[in-house]
Amino acid sequence: MVQQIIVITDGCSNVGVDPVTAAALAREENIIVNVIGVVDEGDIGLRGTREIEEMAAAGGGISKIVQSKQLARTVQMMTRKTVVNTIQQVVNEELEQIIGSSASLEDLHPDQRAKVVHVIENLEENISLRVVLLVDASASMKPKITAVEEAVHDLMLSLQAREGRSEVSLFHFPGSKNKNDFAEKDLDWSTEFAIMKRLFYKINMRGATPTGPALLKVIEYMSQKQSINDIKVLDKAAEADKEGAMLSDYIV
């Protein structure tokens, strides 16, 4: 299973723990943190960009600074790239065990390489995926929220097209109901993507930017003990994942 957090923010966290530290903690939990920055111009934008890049680097993910009109395509690209990168990392580790520590796909015979690439492509389409969208709802993001909503909707459509199970959860920060709540959950793990669009109407854009504390809350949420239903889902996903353990059959 691939687990990732996609943070959509204009940067410049100003409450609580450093978001770079929080992203590093996520990586320790095998959760990848990707960050999309919709930043303003000037010194504030430069500071936000630096924070966004450092956060993604610490979380083992990727960052991208975009204009609002580019947001939808970027969210989809990041989700897909995270899945591909994770699978390739697993494949490379197995290749190292089979044919040596300096091995790569390019070292294989063309016929073997084609078979391994087929395994990668199959896993990419079938591996289970969990994504938490963590949306900055501070006052400075108010002019950009419509673009965020459209981006999330487009992501849902792309995930529906996958063969593997895709679950999505939505949080925004800071919380709307309680001033002391660093992040608020709008949607628990769900495959009912049609309801996602309606959730944005209740988000109250206000206040400061507690990115670090919000990340910590999401990490805790994602790291909770799996329910019996989760385990059943993982067992089913493992059938698709088995192909990744059969690389040795193609490399003799």
Automatic annotation (TrEMBL):
InterPro entries membership: VWF_A (IPR002035), vWFA_dom_sf (IPR036465)
Domain of life: Bacteria
SUPFAM superfamilies hit by this protein: vWA-like (SSF53300)
Domain VWFA stretches: 1-87
Annotated protein name in UniProt: VWFA domain-containing protein
Provenance organism: Chengkuizengella axinellae
